[in-house]
Amino acid sequence: MASFVAYYRVSTARQGYSGLGLDAQRLAVGRFTAGRGELVAEFTEIESGRKADRPQLVAAIELTRKHKAILVIAKLDRLARNVAFVSNLMESRIEFIAADMPEAQRVTVHMMAAIAEHERGVISKRTKEALEAAKARGVRLGNPRPNLAKATGRAAERAARFRASMMPLIQSLRANGRSLRAIADDLNSRRIPTLSSAPRLLETPR
């Protein structure tokens, strides 16, 4: 039987204290590990997914290595949000798996991270431009902006749908032995746009 180490992440202290989102992650991991092995430890990180400093993840990786276990997370997007971070995880040489996408290979995770990082940058840029435009019109920016928040949320949802729609094609190309650069060139040659219509740039994992 395999040994598993669970890693959970919540975005804010309030989420961590309230259990919002955490219970769902634990349930997903519990369902995945049931019948597959023993869950030897659980680690919970309370911080932003964009930060590189993750002490709980470091501890989880160390314990995973010590027990020759498998690091398991509830959802792939809770890890695959930063290319540099994913590369570091791969370099740790531990086995890791996502309960919602256990068939995902390491290169798939890296590509999802590249896409997610790019689209997050686009959303951030559009939000900044919207705020600057509002400020230029004389709108006070210190108050809550429900319309802007809704627009940002819709952009994030579009990015998530975009990633989901691209994965079958990317996985198919990888199954045929194509490199990341070749896949990017192939998608561009087929005139398959990115969410922002910007050039598609992917780096090979180191």
Number of strands: 4
Question: Please, what is the CATH homologous superfamily of the largest domain?
Answer: Resolvase, N-terminal catalytic domain
CATH architecture label name of the largest domain: 3-Layer(aba) Sandwich
* Annotated CATH topology of the largest domain: Rossmann fold
CATH class descriptor of the largest domain: Alpha Beta
Helix content: 40-55%
Can you write the helix and strand succession as a string?
A: EHHEHEHEHHH
Protein model, in words:
The chain has seven helices and four strands; from the N terminus they run E-H-H-E-H-E-H-E-H-H-H. Helix 4 (83-91) links the parallel strand 3 and strand 4. The longest helix is centred in the middle third of the chain and has 31 residues, at 106-136. By secondary structure, it is α/β, with parallel strands linked by helices. It folds into two domains: 2-98, Rossmann fold, CATH 3.40.50.1390; 106-189, no CATH class. It has helices at 13-18, 22-33, 55-66, 83-91, 106-136, 146-175, 180-189, and strands at 2-10, 37-46, 70-73, 95-98.
